[in-house]
Design goal:
339 residues; 12 strands; alpha/beta; 434 Repressor (Amino-terminal Domain); homodimer; Rossmann fold; 15% strand
Chain lengths: 339, 339
Amino acid sequence: MRQASIRDVAKLAGVSTATVARVLRGTTPVSDALRERVEDAVAKLGYVPNAVARSLSRGRTQLLGLLVADISNPFFGEVARGLEDAAVAGGYQVLVGSSDLNPERERAVLAAFESRTVDGVALTSSTADSSTLRKLTASGMPMVFIDRRPADVAGPAVLCDNEAAARRAVQYLIGLGHTDLAMISGPRTMATAAQRLAGFRAACAEAGLSIRPECVREGYLGIEGGSKAMRRVLELDTPPTAVFSFNNLLGVGALSATREMGVEVPGEVSLLTFDDMTLFPFVDPPVTAIAQPAYQMGTEAARLLLDALANPAAEQPKDIVLPSDFRIRSSCAAPPPRP
Amino acid sequence: MRQASIRDVAKLAGVSTATVARVLRGTTPVSDALRERVEDAVAKLGYVPNAVARSLSRGRTQLLGLLVADISNPFFGEVARGLEDAAVAGGYQVLVGSSDLNPERERAVLAAFESRTVDGVALTSSTADSSTLRKLTASGMPMVFIDRRPADVAGPAVLCDNEAAARRAVQYLIGLGHTDLAMISGPRTMATAAQRLAGFRAACAEAGLSIRPECVREGYLGIEGGSKAMRRVLELDTPPTAVFSFNNLLGVGALSATREMGVEVPGEVSLLTFDDMTLFPFVDPPVTAIAQPAYQMGTEAARLLLDALANPAAEQPKDIVLPSDFRIRSSCAAPPPRP
């Protein structure tokens, strides 16, 4: 079937093509009855306005930009997927750029977004100096943060309950009998790392447990980083009996280190990580994890952007804090008896 | 520190700002000595030309577009990461759009790319009617295909040795003693699905094995699809003793079906899949897989695009066919004895 044209829509609605264009542009007031007739015809014919032409006439590109740290990290893949699905439902497409946490790459992606390639921007894991971000805000570009927000930049954020979730999970480890715990954390400058570490410390403090300084490893990222940090922890004269990992890739790295060193999980050390992964239930042993609603974080961010685009004059919305899900599997158990 | 301006560069190099602009544009010939002086000043000051201004003056955006089927599939995440890393090394950024194998979404992403948002396009898993793609080619946009190429469109491709790799893997299963094999395949219209199925059939034919029609499940995608197909196969009166999965997500779905049905891998059924995943070595049992060089497929595609942008008059390069890696783990074994 040939694709419907604006002429087909006009004919079916019994109006001129100029009227169809006016209704679709949405900038000139038209009567409700007229709008309904045109929208009915659009729906019946499955008419898709030419995106380029439409963007030129409206000064919009119908594109949203998403900045992520690492597109090959499944967490960001899920966020992107959620953002996309909701954006597409609202008539937008998403372009994803990735920074590798490199400020220069991030600036380049944001510059591409800023030059009106996109109508709105969602940012995860921003490392940008806030001046770049403030410039973007000042340009009037609708903006939303996902996962974390730099301290001195305004803009709504979709966040997870990082500190509370970490605290609850560590309470679970303490409940199993652990008194000597370690955390493999991310870079100190990353808000989520600081929040999850705070949750770890809070749970230990509540239980009257002290944390050995060498059992808090900060600054690691990626599978390699997780493996290295886990080795350092397990090679201590007295290794801790439970390890809490800041995120999915650090958790995978920690797991691989236990395999390489022949350390049994959970027999010799319990392992618990922030972020779930599709295959964690199938791993030997199935990995206990705090699942962030990554997909939903994406859809909520899209909703905030679409709302801002539909109502440019509206007040800035409040942050959205989504609950995580604690999934107990088999990688944590009571600590081994100590001599 | 305030960011260096073109004026700072000119002052340090002892030339006019017009000369700096000329050197940076790279379109007008300048003496090597002059170029060196300007480039030294740029490096010393860490000067970053405004991307928008630069793209306007050169008619380029320094952006590459990547179309993928599903950004949350780790295979595409790795391809994107490889493309990005190589693009960034060449002074480009990448914007990724995802089609969900929906032709309408794909058209919208390609329209955004076509309207000169980007300087070159890499396409994976295209479902587009070839007219959309031919329009893009006709516009002079450098284009490269990754993973597969629609039959009637020109353009270089970076491919994996799909048929040969599938054949080798199935030969391995046959070598273990299997005589009754099944394949969970993707949609028939997907070139890679057809190629891997051809490899499966060839290996069976060579060994004189016939394949039961109900043991070739076509048209499945995603984890859900893999689980459903695996259930159908395992619920046969006489289930096959080995199953070959078309890709990673179908493989995960097949694995989850065996868990849910209490079927032992590899004791009751051997499982082998195209595409490796980070966690496959840690799964119970570790999953035997054909690893595609996804990251390298991305870097090679970037190289082809950067070459085409640097030498617009060059002849179209040949396809690049990359070898896969067969990773034998523990999910395949000799078939169980039959009564």
